[in-house]
Every structure is written in C-alpha cells, then in structure tokens.
Amino acid sequence: MIRRHLPVLITLAVFIVGYLICLAQFPSFASTRVIGNLLTDNAFLGIVAVGMTFVILSGGIDLSVGSVIAFTGVFLAVAIERYGINPYLAFVLVLGIGALFGAGMGLLIHAFQIPAFIVTLAGMFLARGLCFVLTTDSIPINAPAYGQITEIAFVMPGGGRLTFIAIVMLVTFAAGIVLAHFTRFGANVYALGGNRTSAELMGVPVGRTTIGIYMLSSLLAALAGIVFSFYTSAGYSLAATGVELDTIAAVVIGGTLLTGGYGTIIGTLVGVLIQGLIQTYITFEGTLSSWWTKIAIGALLFAFIVLQRGLSAASLRSR
Amino acid sequence: MQPTRERPELLEIRGLTKGFPGVLALDHVDFTLHAGEIHGLLGENGAGKSTLIKVLTGVFRRDAGTVRLDGQEITARDPADALSLGIGTVYQEVNLLPNLSVAENLFIGRQPHRFGLVRTGEMRRRAAELLSGYGLAIDVANPLGSFSVAVQQIIAIARAVDLSAKVLILDEPTASLDAQEVESLFEILKGLKARGIGIVFVTHFLDQVYAVCDRITVLRNGRLVGSKPIAELPRIELVSMMLGRELADEALHRNQRPAVTGEPLVAFKNYGRRRLIEPFDLAVRPGEVVGLAGLLGSGRTETAKLIFGVERADSGQAFVDGKPVRIATPRDAARLRFGFTPEDRKTEGIVAELSIRENIVLALQAQRGWLHQIPRGKQEEIANRFIKLLDIRTPDAEKPIGLLSGGNQQKALLARWLATEPRFLILDEPTRGIDVGAHAEIIRLIERLCEDGLALLVISSELEEIASYSDRVVVLRDRRHVRELSGAEVSADTIMTTIASH
Ligand SMILES: Nc1ncnc2c1ncn2[C@@H]1O[C@H](COP(=O)(O)OP(=O)(O)OP(=O)(O)O)[C@@H](O)[C@H]1O
Ligand SMILES: [Mg+2]
C-alpha cells in the first residue's frame, strides 16, 4: 500500500519541506494571502495539467496545449472585442472548438497509428498559426463580464482571496480525480498506458478512449485559456509559449510515470504547487533572476525521473 | 444444423484463410466446435493455431472463409466484439495489465457501476468471489504485477472463463502452472463443459490433451491435417499427424552413456542466500548434464539466478576450473562464459521490434562490446546457422522476431545464448511451449553440446524428459536441495518419489 503511493508521498514531502524552508526565511508564507495568490497564479497551469495527466497516464503526450491556450485567448479577444459576441457565448464556442481540435488529434493518432508526439507537434504549430491568422496584435479585453468575474472571490481569514479562477482549478482537479479513479473511462486510460496491445485484446475500446483523452486535454487547455485571459485580460498570439513543457514537468514531478500507466491526479496538483512555490520564493527573494525557476524545476525534474527509475527497478526486483 | 449430430454445432469455421507477408498462416482451414465439448487444437510451432484464434476473435482480418456461431454467420470486428458475442479468450502472449489491480483486470469494461461511477467495493467483492473458485485467496486490490506469473495466468483464465457465454478459447494457458493448478483448471473446464460451453484448448502437453479433450484437430503449416475424437486417436498417430512423419520413440530418449568423470568445470560450495535458497553444494563437469527437478517454487529458478549472479550469494564460494571466483552480477557470469536462458522468456527475453538476426547476435554483441560491431556477413552467417540448426520456422532472418509464433521465438532465444559459445549453460525450462518435434531437436542439441564439452544445468518440470538427458538430477523441495540422484537412480519415478517424500 505504502509502496504504491510512494511517488506521491515523496512529491508531497518535497512540497512540505520546500514550504517549510520558505516559511523559515519569509514568515509571511504562512499568510492566506500568499496561499491565495499561489493558487490563483497557477490556476491555468493546474487546469491544463489535469488533462496532461490523463494523456501521460495513457502513454501519450500532448505538445499542443500551450498553443491552444494562446489560441483561446486570441479567439476570445477577437470575438468579444471585434465582433461584439457575448463573452459567455464566446466561452462555449471556444470550448467546443478546443474539444473538436483534440478529438481530431486523437482520431489521427488512433486511426493512422501515428505517434502522439508527431500529431500534437503538428497541432501545436497549427493552433499557433491560427492565432496569427486571427491577429498579430495583443488585443486587450475590456468586456464588463471580465471585470465581474475576476471580482468574485472568497475572502479567507487573514485577508487572502480565494479567487474564482482558483476555485475553477480546484473543481477541475476534483472532477479529474473522480474521472481517473472512479469511472470506466479512467480505468481504460490506465489500461492503455499499461500495455496497449493487451488492453486491446482484453476488449478495451482503444479508439474511443484515445479520442476521449486528447479531447479532454484540448478541452481543458481551452478552459485554461479562458482562465488565462481573465488573468491577463488580453489575447496575444505569443502568449503561453512553453507552457506544454511546464505542464509535463508538473505532471512528472507529481509522480506520474512518463511511460504511462502509473500516476495520480492529486500528485499533479502537488507538482503544480511545487512549481508555484519555487516561483513565489524567487519573487520574494528579489535578487535572483526568474530564470532560476527554470533551473530549479529542471533539477527537480531530473531528480524525480531518476527516482522513478530507481523505484520501478526496486519493485521489479522485489517480486 | 444437422439433426444427425447428437450435439449441436456451436462454431463452424469453413475455408478460413489468412496470409502474412511471406507466409500463408492459414490455408482453407475447417474447424467445428460442438457445445459441451473440449476440443484440442494441436500442431507444431508456427502451424497456425494462434492465428486461427486471432482471426476468429477479430484481432486479424481474414482473407477468406466463413464463421458461424449457433448457425448465424459472424465476423468479429475486434476482440471487444468477440467478447460481446460470447467468445472469451486467453491469448498466448497476453499478460493482462500489470499496472491495474487484480479486480480491475477481471472486470475492465464491465465494472459494476451506479450513476456512471464504478462501485469499487462491489467489484472487489465479486473479484474475490470469482477467484476463490480457483482456490486463490489474494488481495484483489493489489496491482496484478505484484503477483507471480502463475497467479497472473490463473487470473487471465478466470477472466476469460467468466466472460465466455458460449465459447472459451485457451491458447497454451498451462505453460506456467504446476500440476495441481492444472488439475483445478481441468475441474473448472469440465464444469463449463457440463454447462454446454464449447472449449478450444491449445497446448503442447500431450498428457493434458488426453486428460481432458474430447476431440482433436491438428494443423500443420497452416493446413488442416485432420480432426478426430480422442478415442480413435492413439498418441503415436497424433504425433505423426503433427509432424507429418513417424517420430521414432527413441527420439525422445538419450543414448546410454558412461558416467562423466574428471574435474568439475564449475563448483559451488555451501552457496546460498538467505530467504532465497538454502546453501547448497553443486558441481558440473564438462560434458555433463545436471538436471534440477522440483515443483514450481521449490527453488529451481532461484538456484539458477544465484549461480548466474542475478541474485547475490551471501554465503559460500564459487569455483571455476578449481579457482575461486566472484559472481556478483550477470556480467561477471558472462565474463566467465556462463549462459542463461530465463524461464519468463515472454517478458525477459525478446526484443520484438528487432529482427531474428539481431536478436540472435544480441548477447554475442553485448559480450564483445558495442564498439566492436560484428560484421554484417558474419551476423547473417550465425543467424542462418542457428535458424537451420534449431529449425526456426521463418521465411528469412530479417523478419521482426515479434511476428514469429511463440515457440519459434523461444528457439531464437536459445540460439542467442548458444551463439556466445558458453562453457557453462543454464537452461530454465528449455522445452516449454515448444512442440514435440522441436522438443526432440532440442534434446538432441543438448546431447551434441555435451559432446563438445559444454557443461549444462537444466531446469525442467517434465520429469520424463529431465530423466532422459541428465547424468545427475538434483531434487529440490521448499527452497532446499534435498537429494542428488545419479546413475541408475535417475528416473522419473525416483524423482517423483523424492519430491513427494517428507
Ligand atoms: N502478425 C504477424 N505477422 C506476420 N506473420 C505472422 C504474424 N503472426 C503470425 N505470423 C506467422 O504465421 C505463422 C503461424 O503462426 P502462429 O502464431 O499461428 O503459430 P502457432 O501454431 O500458434 O505456433 P506456436 O505453437 O509456436 O504458438 C508463423 O509462420 C508466423 O511466423
Ligand atoms: Mg501460438
């Protein structure tokens, strides 16, 4: 039992140790204000990471999510500001487009047996290209709905704000946990990551599941794009570059095996928070360049991959 | 349906044809399965047994032919479709999903659920109940991969049995089961048969065929040789149907030879590891075959792993040519020119995407170091020599090994170690999953290797076989070497009584 949850427990331990270090240096880390900001600042990353966890669990990869986030922002800005479409309608439209986009990628991956890496790489260029077709400018979004939504927040004791977008992220995680661990779809995702051939011979609907997985990933990327646009109040073609890699890093640090089959959604939440923690620490520290975030994440990622290798080798040997 | 039959025809296959590039795996094959019948499907390695099954269950698309189930023409689009038609299958190479829990493996795709949510508690309860019918009391919440290969095999069978409403297909299901487990499987099959389910049973163990089958169909090179009730088919006729030639009885027996004398090539004194295997003494001389016999889990494979350095000994000393040596890793063992073909070849051995040639030269290349590439011509020569020597059925050496039939893959793995020209070779179940013809070939090969001065340690569950080629036999029980038999004592009967005695 303990052994099975070891990767998540280690991730959790890293987070707690990291938090304590931050706390020792900057006592204000205990305030709900810092915690509220940690959740809000990483909301969009958390949402995409949920989708990415499903993709990686199934043994695949989705490189298109950063571009889909940017496309969503640009689409919303153009639709709302240029064409005067109701923001809520625009949200629904863009979520629909995202889902279709992902389903298309899933279909290609399944029907032609093309590696997910290639298909989603193409998807990445396609979505980014579409941004530039819509506009090359950064368009601010001034719709009153945006102001209203960003105003929604629970004030926690101590003055911290649990914002609407933080809540959206937490709800996404809760839904992701239920989907992964308590539905047939979830079991099928793990089955695909365990061994695709065996899964097929056991009667798992491989095609349907593959399409569902990439559809979910792009849908959540579009949702993350909406959240991101609340956060920045603008749509810009070059936004969110490299987010796909941050997301993959968060998932792996969260204890999910890159080769698929093993991992949890809750681990991904901790992975996202660890990244947020490093970022916050560097902001507080003030003298370090923000590139140190990348270096720290790189080091962590490396450590975790080595650790996973060690763990899986150890569990093989103990049989 | 023909009214003249006493039992209705459940499954009727006519003119089934399936070709792969370079091979016609099935050539107009007919096959009829009745309700309430256990039907043995036999043939040599590469005869087309697994292909027949896979075409039937929609893994492969057929080139021609018809399939009727209960008189209705059917075409399974994929394995899921076959399941929904009531055809449950244990495929030869499937190990289910090691990362999922046992319960999920048993119920994937049909988990009990409410409002779209899986009822995990209910699923586990039913899984435990299902497995208790097989005498398996395990925690079904644990991942499948944490159990032994034998337990996994039973779980695969339990799953297929539970899924088969009309037809149950078992492709070499007993390969990693011990005698008692096989016995309880047979009880279950007989129960299913009484309920009117038709069972297709593929195996290379002739004893098992005669123990349960009602009827036998034999394939050879993708063609139907014949189909007969078991009562009308004596063993010797069955074997000649499979081989297409008469197999002399002595082909399975070794010529009487004088006892091998001389200094041992390898020797182990008080060698052991706590909780793995009790310390033992063992010596093998050049040209000698020592057999390790015992039940599954008695410590046979553990002994082999210790000797080859897969596990590290914590007591005793190893000697080669009388000089003490240290064997802490398989690399050490390979440097001493030891070879080892592991039991679990499915997962530990083949690299499915690489060609047969590449698989065969793999160990040799690794031994030489990757910087000293073996020239292509030499590789081809080695591969072709072993393909011929072991009669590996393939159009050429460049075919990916994953596309060979199961038994032929095993022969290629044996070739991999033989190619390194070892001085001391450990064979763990060398004939498992290998057909009678190749069986005899491998035994003859073992003899020939001995004459060349190779020292051999062979692990086998087949007592007749081990008795026929071993100079000495070490019998193991409960992770201890209990007795060493030599000379006239080496017989299946003595081995059996030694295993059984207390
Ligand atoms: N996917 C494939 N692609 C190409 N050739 C194949 C494929 N599967 C099987 N074959 C070939 O078809 C022939 C029949 O193979 P099959 O697996 O049906 O044999 P089998 O009777 O099950 O043998 P075994 O007892 O060794 O399991 C072999 O020559 C094999 O090489
Ligand atoms: Mg086969």
TrEMBL record, chain B:
Signal peptide: none annotated. Residues 11-246, 260-499 form the ABC transporter domain. The keyword Translocase does not apply. SUPFAM superfamilies: P-loop containing nucleoside triphosphate hydrolases (SSF52540). One of its GO terms (molecular function) is ATP binding. Pfam families: ABC_tran (PF00005). SMART domains: AAA. Belongs to the ABC transporter superfamily. This is Sugar ABC transporter ATP-binding protein. The keyword Transcription does not apply. It comes from the Bacteria. The lineage of its organism: Bacteria, Pseudomonadati, Pseudomonadota, Alphaproteobacteria, Hyphomicrobiales. Keywords: ATP-binding, Nucleotide-binding, Repeat, Sugar transport, Transport. InterPro entries: AAA+_ATPase, ABC_carbohydrate_import_ATPase, ABC_transporter-like_ATP-bd, ABC_transporter-like_CS, P-loop_NTPase, YtfR-like.
